[in-house]
Amino acid sequence: MHSSHIAQPADLDVVRDSYDRVADAYVELNLGDITTYPWLRTAIDGFAGAVKGLGPVLDVGCGPGDLTAYLAGRGLDVSGVDLSPRMIEHATRRHPGHRFSVASATELQPADSSLGGIAAWWSLFNLPRHILPEVLGSFARALVPGGHLIIGTHMGDGEIHRTEAYGAIPVTWTTYLWQPAELWALLAAAGLGEVAELRLHESVAGIPSLVLVARRPDHGTRVS
Ligand SMILES: C[S@@+](CC[C@H](N)C(=O)[O-])C[C@H]1O[C@@H](n2cnc3c(N)ncnc32)[C@H](O)[C@@H]1O
Description:
By secondary structure, this protein is an alpha/beta fold.
């Protein structure tokens, strides 16, 4: 375990409650099914191939667990963790036999060099800008040399204050938008190197999408 603690977002409880409220609709709308997004699936398949055999994989912000199960189907030793207990209830029911638990990305403190891969698939965009660098630093330290992090998120400038989501369900959260260069700078500061970038300018959610894949360098390079 790494000893340093990450500051918890001031709105963490409100965000958790919001995802608990939307979880049933998220499942009914089948939004977690990677097989319905061909470009995203291609990126995920590339990630799965890159990390296979490197060690356990953590799906951070796994929601109802569809991606976790998909990655397991690609031969990975994967577990899922999510802020929302209701999302984890769905994940456990929908994907029996897989490992899921409730926690925030900001609380994980995974052991150093313990993971072959980390997927953060549309699950970091609610983190305030000053907290994301610390979370990425914890991810970088948790990866084995050669391990990969894949991030899927909303691309753009500024932020969107959401008051409803997934069919007019009341929520209270901020969606922080990121430009690729901004995120690459944070990943580089965390000690991760660039592997791949995918920009989807037409998104099903109405906001352009961004996928970044970063890699912990092999032995000899220090992770900050
Ligand atoms: C848009 S959903 C994506 C779920 C899943 N990754 C998928 O692709 O279907 C966002 C998920 O991130 C989770 N989340 C939000 N903030 C989080 C945090 N700080 N730590 C862990 N999970 C978080 C939410 O509870 C929710 O399940």
